Structures are given as C-alpha cells and as structure tokens.
Amino acid sequence: PPHPPVYVFVLDTCVPEEELNIAKAAITQSLQMIPEEAYVGLVTFGTHVHVYELGCEAIARSYVFKGSKEYQPQMVQEALGLGAGRQGSNPQQAQAGRRFILPFADCEFQMNSVLEELQVDAFPSVSEHRLSRCTGTALQVATSLITASIPRGVALSRLMLFLGGAATEGPGKVVDKELAESIRSHKDLVKEAAPLHKKALQYYDKVGAQLVAHGTGLDIFACSLDQVGLAEMKPAVEHTGGMVVQTDTFSNSVFKESFKRMFAKPGDPGFLGMTSNATFEVLCSRDVKIAGLLGCAAVTEKKSPSVSDVPIGLGGTCMWKLPTMVETSSLAVYFDIVANH
C-alpha cells in the first residue's frame, strides 16, 4: 500500500503570544482534517531549534540545536539517534525516525499537549535589537529529520514553515540583529548591495536541493508586516513545488483559509489535488533542441544530444523532477528549431 502523507510543522516562536496562539490553533485544527494514518512531526525555533520526540509518551521531550551553528545533515541525524546513512534509504534508520515523525493516531495526545503548552521564545530581545530568529538552522534540522525518517520518494511529504519575521541568527540570516541596520530593500537586491543576500540564497538553495532529492515540498506561511526573507528562500520553494502564503498576521483570513485548503479532501471546496514525486522528460526529433523549462520543478543531471546549448529557464537537461504538484500545476517547455528550411 502507498505510504500515508507526511506533514512536518516548523513553527516560529519569536512572535507575540497572540500570534503564536493563532498559529498553534491553525495547526491543531489541521490535525483534525488529516487522515489518522498520516505522519506528523513538530519542530519549533527561536533563538534555538527544538525537535519534539512525539513517540515519548511519558514526558514531553525535545532535542535542542544551537541556532547560531550550521549543521550538516549527518550531524543532525547522529544527534537525534538516526544514524548518518544515505537519505531515507535505511529501514532501521527510518524506524528510529518514528520517535519524531509517526502516525497521528499514535501521537495525537502528545502532539496536542506540546502545542497547548508551547510558549513564546524564552530568550528576551536586547534593547534596540531584533529578536533572535534562526530560520535557516531550523529548516536544515527539519530537512535532515524528514529525509532520515521517511524513505525517499514513497510519500506525499511536506515541510510547512510558519514564519513571523526575518532570520537574524545563524546560517541563512538576512539581516543583523541591530535595529540600526535596516533590512535589504528591492533596490539593494537589484544593485547587489545586500551583503547577506548571496550567502543566504546559497544556503537555502542547498537545503532545497536536499528536499528535492528526497521528494519533499517546502511550504512557507509568512505572516508579518516586515520582510521575512522570502527572496532568499524562493528558489527552494519553487524547485520543490511548494506553496507560499504571505500576509500581515496569522489572524488574517488569507492565512487561515489558505492553510485549510492544504488539507481539503476530494469534493471539498478548494481541493488542490496534490501529488508527489513526478518526473517530466521531453523527447524530440533531431531538428528540435530543448532549451529549457519554466515552472515549479528542479533540474536533473540527465543529458541528451537534443539539449540546446542556449538555456532558457531551467535548461541544460531533458528531464526535470517535480517533488510536489497540484491539479493546476503548469509547465512551459522552450525549444530551439535547428533544421534549415
């Protein structure tokens, strides 16, 4: 039988208490909409990253990762007791991951209890400084967790990030903590005058590549009046076929209704018809070459004589991977006509 869907929630706790309570309520409501056999996991972050062991029934237990440190996938997996084998390829490794990602029916009480007791990040902000938010570290830890816990390419798996502000700590940060330093503007990006942009973009690209290889989509729910750093994370979302919802607050109906649509069942209003782990290959005759593809997909390494030397969009290959799709997903392929007429 097919593997049940997998949802790992990555929740920002560097937000006002009211905002956190609304985000928690949205997740709790979504848990009532998923099938009982669906797998769930929970990661929270602020100054540090917390990975919750939902399989521990006796007490609420979490593993803490330092927010300012950059972790390699093997380091995260070893710290969680998942080993450091190939991503999701070891059955024993996947079984160990069931301490953190497991069927909702097996961890309903623990999941709801953790959400109910979850508090705003305990580390106070310094005067005239932004809150310490380690978004990049949280995404890497969550990615390492899901790739080690769930076998590659067997399930519709989604990593859902709830974000209330810009990353200010650790790898992937887009602005310094000092409020005197303003966050980069669109003009700065155009003029390449944003000193943190390139490094953050490369970091999130690397995390996105791990998600693509595993077949997991990255969804971002950015609810903040200020920028959150979507420009840096955008390629990771696009290559995995994920969703982005951006609004001012978690109480906004745009967030609430959009998030509910992620779990709509066939026949329900707003049903998205999600699928996963597709590949798209183009075969053509000798007088046509493949220039590239536009759409939410990722380039593979497959080559052929029909690949054009002049790429357009996602070029340089004749095959693309689509970790996640919906019924309305669209792709556009560009060709070069090389025959002489």
Automatic annotation (TrEMBL):
The highest taxon in the source lineage is Eukaryota
Show the GO MF annotations. Answer: GTPase activator activity; metal ion binding
Q: Predominant location of this chain?
A: membrane
User: Its Gene Ontology biological processes?
Assistant: COPII-coated vesicle cargo loading; intracellular protein transport
As given in the record, the signal peptide range reads none
Q: Which cellular compartments is it found in?
A: Cytoplasmic vesicle, COPII-coated vesicle membrane; Endoplasmic reticulum membrane
**What GO cellular component term, any one, is given?**
COPII vesicle coat
Swiss-Prot/TrEMBL keywords: Cytoplasm, Cytoplasmic vesicle, Endoplasmic reticulum, ER-Golgi transport, Membrane, Metal-binding, Protein transport, Transport, Zinc
Q: Which SUPFAM superfamilies match?
A: beta-sandwich domain of Sec23/24, vWA-like
Q: How does it sit in the membrane?
A: Peripheral membrane protein
Q: Where is the Sec23/Sec24 trunk domain?
A: 2-263
Record-stated family: Belongs to the SEC23/SEC24 family. SEC23 subfamily.
Its biological purpose is as follows:
Component of the coat protein complex II (COPII) which promotes the formation of transport vesicles from the endoplasmic reticulum (ER). The coat has two main functions, the physical deformation of the endoplasmic reticulum membrane into vesicles and the selection of cargo molecules.
This chain belongs to the protein called: Protein transport protein SEC23
**Source organism of the structure:** Tetraselmis chuii
